[in-house]
Design goal:
The complex is a heterodimer of chains A (223) and B (250). Chain A has ten helices and no strands. Chain A is an all-alpha fold. In chain A, helix 8 packs antiparallel against helix 9. The N and C termini of chain A lie far apart (35 Å). The model of chain A has no long low-confidence stretch (mean pLDDT 96). Chains A and B meet through helix 3, helix 4, helix 5 and helix 10 of A and strand 13, strand 14, strand 17 and strand 18 of B.
Chain lengths: 223, 250
């Protein structure tokens, strides 16, 4: 099922892939303001928690889409797993932006159909999985991408928000690598069993603070 | 802890005429019909003995038939306790509400006691015109003790479509980072209040912050969810009671 190259995975996972992710902190901006992230240790705990909750859930959806599960069912599953309206809106906006970049990178009738079915954007992980499929990648590749994004976004954001040493932020990501592998593996295994088996791990503080963050008049990141 | 693990399934069915055609207690799950404000029929879950212990498999099945109005509560908090068995305990709540049925599901907290391991799963199937108020509260450890391992999953489907699906794990057996700034951030109580009201399809609830620790937010369907974290059970209940008064006039 995996016909794409390892390099296609690097292109899709690259922070420079023009999909708009850099404008989002993954909840880190709100956590910094609330004093929950003050140093590299806090960042690691934040990222580890995000990875095993939102990250696992996103990875499952992405793996499901890469596996070829029904995108409408996946998008509905994503809605049910995203109780925060601010995060649903962000996920659809990011899905739309990723779709534009993915269609340019890997023209594919599956992506065209998904774009037509969700003109306002499908949830980002669903688009990510479809993009991985278009690039010839497999469910576990898509899950790896989703897992990495889940922690890469906050780590980069905290470097900007706190002036955290970028070497220390990168060391946090390196320490999380085994957890990312486990999350991707679990997500891909669940995706093989269908939409109803997908993980639904959630993070109360991320849901709560996303709504608080959305009311700020001035902020550096969109979410 | 000198008893073997047990399996028990209690059953409730409520009719539109206020009757309870099914009210079956089982093992530690004793059900009593109690006095209720009109027009509700009320059932109180009375914990007849300490449960669930490790290895126990408990379940409550509730069917709210067409046009019935049922209120279910409990006499005391559910204490997840360590048992002889190394296996986790399981507590499954299965609910279905038929058209024009109303369910208020307002049990006391689940307290995850040091050394315990509980998997609690609540599954709800709602007909298109069913209404629901459902509260879930988790307290991580008794006062001053570390928590046990607790995983709770809440899956709600309405008219056959997923409406809400959430799982939360905490304690020493949970994946890492559960107590970090993304998930619970040191809070020792967390809970949700779900209100499903078909009228919200026309007039959705607006997002509202209840101080720093709770939010009322509209779901993608005709429902609102309150998400709250708090230092303890009492503070959590205060937040959810405020939200309940604001959201559910029925």
């Amino acid at each position: 099922m995996r016909t794409g190259t390892r390099s296609a995975l690097l292109v899709l996972a690259d922070g420079r892939f023009p999909a708009g992710g850099h404008a989002h902190s993954g909840g880190a901006e709100a956590a910094v303001k609330a004093g929950r992230i003050k140093d590299a240790d806090d960042l690691e705990a934040f990222c580890r928690g995000r990875l095993h909750t939102t990250g696992l859930t996103s990875a499952g959806l992405a793996a499901g889409a890469a596996h070829g599960l029904d995108p409408h069912a996946l998008d509905a599953a994503a809605d049910a797993r995203t109780p925060s309206p601010a995060l649903r809106a962000a996920a659809r906006r990011l899905g739309r932006q990723l779709m534009r970049a993915a269609r340019a990178a890997w023209p594919d009738p599956g992506l065209d159909a998904l774009a037509a079915a969700f003109p306002r954007g499908a949830h980002q992980p669903v688009v990510l999985g479809a993009a991985a499929r278009a690039a010839g990648l497999g469910p576990e590749d898509a899950a790896h991408c989703a897992a990495y994004e889940t922690v890469g976004g906050p780590a980069t954001a905290v470097v900007r928000l706190l002036g955290l040493d970028p070497y220390r932020a990168t060391a946090v990501l390196a320490r999380l690598a085994p957890d990312m592998d486990r999350v991707a593996e679990r997500a891909a295994a669940a995706a093989g069993e269908g939409v109803d088996a997908l993980p639904a791990a959630s993070a109360p503080l991320l849901d709560l603070t996303a709504e608080q963050h959305a009311t700020w008049p001035v902020r550096l990141f969109a979410s | 802890m000198d008893r073997v693990s047990l399996r028990a399934t209690a059953r409730i069915a409520a009719d539109a005429d206020g009757g309870l055609p099914l009210l079956v207690s089982d093992g530690p799950l004793a059900l009593r019909r109690t006095r209720a404000p009109e027009p509700y029929t009320r059932v109180t879950v009375v914990g007849a003995m300490s449960a669930p212990l490790g290895g126990d498999r408990l379940a409550i099945e509730t069917s709210v038939r067409a046009g019935a109005r049922l209120l279910v509560d409990s006499a005391a908090a559910t204490l997840a306790l360590p048992g002889r068995s190394a296996d986790p305990a399981a507590y499954d709540v299965r609910i279905d509400v038929a058209d024009d049925g109303v369910l208020r599901w307002l049990p006391e907290q689940v307290v995850s006691v040091d050394g315990s391991h509980l998997r609690a799963r609540t599954t709800v199937e709602l007909a298109p015109t069913a209404r629901l108020v459902l509260r879930e509260e988790q307290v991580l450890g008794r006062h001053g003790e570390p928590p046990g391992t607790l995983t709770t999953r809440l899956t709600v489907r309405r008219a056959g479509r997923p409406l809400l699906d959430q799982e939360l794990s905490s304690g020493p057996g949970a994946p890492g980072g559960w107590d970090g700034g993304a998930v619970l951030g040191g809070h020792r109580a967390t809970g949700q209040l779900l209100v499903v009201e078909p009228a919200f399809a026309e007039k959705p609830v607006e997002t509202r912050l209840l101080g720093e620790h709770a939010v009322i937010a509209p779901l993608a369907g005709p429902a609102a969810l309150v998400t709250a974290v708090a230092p303890d059970a009492l503070a959590l209940r205060r937040l959810l009671d405020t939200a309940l008064a604001a959201l559910a006039p029925f």
